[in-house]
Amino acid sequence: MIHARGLRRTYTSKAATVDAVRGVDLDVSPGEIVGFLGPNGAGKTTTLRMLTTLLRPTGGTATVAGRDLLAEPAEVRRRIGYVPQGGTVGPASRVGDELRLQARLYGMDAAAARSRVEALLGRLELAGMDARPAASLSGGQRRRVDIAMGLLHEPALLFLDEPTTGLDPQSRAGLWEHVRRLRAEHGLTVFLSTHYLEEADALCDRVLIIDGGRIVREGAPAALKAEIGPGATLDEVFLAVTGRELREQGAAA
Ligand SMILES: Nc1ncnc2c1ncn2[C@@H]1O[C@H](COP(=O)(O)OP(=O)(O)OP(=O)(O)O)[C@@H](O)[C@H]1O
């Protein structure tokens, strides 16, 4: 579903040259839930923005959802959903209106947009929220609306940028359940960045740890923990690999 080789991004300005991503190889199979972890400044957002066609790589190649990232970015966009960190719905907008508008922008006619939005609201346990302004929803409900927004055009692959930042533990666990269900019922492939190691541990089939613009470790959470020793946590794996604690980084961010 994602195959990247030697992906790089150098930011160049008069003041400085920053090698943000220095040759990333990664593979994600259909139906996998993959977590992307790293300390602040490691290159997560830059990589995510490249894989979602928002930022042009300065080197390397990739196919995303079966299309060449550099040669066919519009075809990639058609096949992926992207839920950015800041949310997608204005606070005063009514949930259903915003979703239907977006569906029309994807080219659906009014009837198709109505039924697609109704189905998605049901699927994400948001039935009854159609006429509510986004500002009146809980944090967890708002994040589910963002996910619905990313799924309107039925992408096979969904990118989530720190989907549960700011949510309380219960809403966070609720969102994991929704992501799992979308995978189980619709075969969705999910690539998510997160600052929460317990999230990566609970939700992801596999995690990739990036540091200094390079992937420094990857594997299933259980296998990575077993390498450290009996009873090890993913926090300990992260500390061993990067020399830093992710939790503090996340809190600082
Ligand atoms: N537009 C830009 N111009 C110059 N440097 C940039 C730009 N965007 C990011 N960088 C630098 O590139 C590096 C990687 O940044 P990136 O945002 O990808 O990291 P990140 O892992 O997402 O960090 P965080 O966890 O803090 O969001 C950092 O050193 C950052 O300062």
Automatic annotation (TrEMBL):
Superkingdom of origin: Bacteria
InterPro entries linked: AAA+_ATPase, ABC_transporter-like_ATP-bd, ABC_transporter-like_CS, ABC_transporter_ATP-binding, P-loop_NTPase
SMART domains per the UniProt record, alphabetical: AAA (SM00382)
Keyword terms: Antibiotic resistance, ATP-binding, Nucleotide-binding, Transport
Subcellular location: Cell membrane
Residues in the signal sequence: none
Residues of the ABC transporter domain: 2-237
Classification via Gene3D superfamilies: P-loop containing nucleotide triphosphate hydrolases (3.40.50.300)
Membrane topology, as annotated: Peripheral membrane protein
Main location as per UniProt: membrane
Molecular function in Gene Ontology: ATP binding
SUPFAM superfamilies: P-loop containing nucleoside triphosphate hydrolases
Family: Belongs to the ABC transporter superfamily.
Name listed for the protein in its UniProt record: ABC transporter ATP-binding protein
